[in-house]
């Protein structure tokens, strides 16, 4: 189960309550910063924008590819470790608005993690150090350190131990 806080709403669906949960001006500022960062080709500038204006926690030498979309409402709930790569057009969500409730949860991406292009990461998920997430994966639960996962629904393709065995075999060849 993902680690999210759940907030019940009455009457209209939870998206109608959006500006009771987050400031309109915060969303406007975040939108502008994210759009600039999505298109800038300079990784240091991108990380600086995320750290300073969105209060995201970004480790040294982590890379966000073109068109990555961090959560527009709660980007401060996103942490990315050192030397990780977030692939093209990946979406990282820290919130989800449903009919009768909305949920908010931290997203933690470890060190040396590779996230493939067009992946969606849902709120409340932790991706362990050294994990590899295949392109176009829906990350709907935690990913253990060193494992290789992929698909929709996401499945473990190789565990950390299997990845290490493959790596040692490849080095011998």
UniProtKB/TrEMBL annotation:
Molecular-function GO terms, alphabetical: acyltransferase activity
Superkingdom of source: Bacteria
Key words of the record: Acyltransferase, Transferase
Entry keyword annotation includes Cell division: no
Keyword Iron: no
Protein known as: Acyltransferase
């Amino acid at each position: 189960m993902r680690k999210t806080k759940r907030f019940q709403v009455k009457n209209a669906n939870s998206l109608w309550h959006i500006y009771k949960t987050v400031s309109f001006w915060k969303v406007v500022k975040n939108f502008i910063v994210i759009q600039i960062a999505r298109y800038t080709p300079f990784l240091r500038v991108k990380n600086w924008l995320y750290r300073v204006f969105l209060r995201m926690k970004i480790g040294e030498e982590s890379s966000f590819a073109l068109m990555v979309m961090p959560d527009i409402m709660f980007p401060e709930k996103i942490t990315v470790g050192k030397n990780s790569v977030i692939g093209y057009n990946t979406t990282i969500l820290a919130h989800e608005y449903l009919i009768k409730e909305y949920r908010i949860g931290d997203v933690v991406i470890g060190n040396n993690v590779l996230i493939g292009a067009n992946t969606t990461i849902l709120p409340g998920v932790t991706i362990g150090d050294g994990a590899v997430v295949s392109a176009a994966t829906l990350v709907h639960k935690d990913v253990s350190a060193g494992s290789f996962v992929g698909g929709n629904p996401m499945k473990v393709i190789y565990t950390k131990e299997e990845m290490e065995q493959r790596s040692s075999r490849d080095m011998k060849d």
